[in-house]
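Chapter summary example.
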Amino acid sequence: MSRAITILYGTETFTAEGYAERTGEELESEGYEVTVTDMEDFEPEDISTLRTLLVITSTYGNGDPPANAEPLYEHLMADNAERLPHLRFSVCGLGDSTYSRFAQCGKDFDRRLASLGGTRFSPRQDCDVDIDPPWEEWLGQVKTALTALSWEPVPETTAPTAPEPSASAAPSAEASATPPDVASTTAAAPEAEPASMPLSAAAAEASVLHERCGPPAVPDAPHARRRNPVLVRVAVNQSITGEGASRDIRHLELDLTGSGLTYLPGDSIG
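The structure predicted for these 270 residues follows.
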C-alpha cells in the first residue's frame, strides 16, 4: 500500500525550498514516499492526479505568488479549474507580518484548494519571519493527521451506461414514419418560464438607477507584479561612491505619484 505524499513549494529566495526539503526528510524517516517538487517544474494539469499534497510557499511583495508558483496559482484560480474531490492537502505559508497581506499566497492556495473540493486534513500554518517554531508546530500536526488517513487507492468511478432500448419498446418503422407529403402535427410544448419575483421598493429603485446611470464605478487599483509592471519616474539617480572606487553604488529615488503603489521600509523593487 503506497503512502505517497507530494510537496510543492513556491519560493523567491529559496527559503520555502529549504523547508520543503526538511519536511520531506522528516516524513521519509517515518516511512512515507515523498516527492518534493518546485512548482515551476510541476504541470498544473497534474494537480487532479494527486491524492495527498503539502504546499509550502512564500509570498512575493504584498500578497502575490512567487514567480515559480505563478503557473500553478493561475491555473487553480481560473474559473474553469477542475474539481479536486479526492485531494487531501495542508498548506504552510511563509511571510512577514509587517505586511498587510501577510502570507497571502499560502492563504490563497489553502482557500482555493478547499473551494475546488479538496479536504484540508491539517490546518494551514502562517509562519512569520521566525519560521522554525510555527513550521515545527505545523509539521507535528501534519504527522498526526497523516496517521489517521486512509491510504487505500481511490476507487475509479465510471459514468453509468444508458440501457439499450428493448426490441419491444422500439416503435416500428411503419408506425413512426411520417409521410413525406404530410406535415407532423406533434410539437414539443414550450417550457414554462419561471414566474418573476416582485421587486421590493428599494430593489426597484436601485434597478432604475442602474439602468439610468450604469454600474457603480470601480476604482482603478493596479496589481503590480513582475509580469504586470508599473512604470514610474526616476526622480534621483546619483552615485554615492567616491572617484576611483571599484564599484558604482547609486542612490535612487522613485516618484510613485499616480501609480497607486505604496512602499514600506524593507520592500524590494524590481
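To summarize the output: Helices lie at 15-28, 70-77, 104-115, 132-147, 173-176, 201-213.
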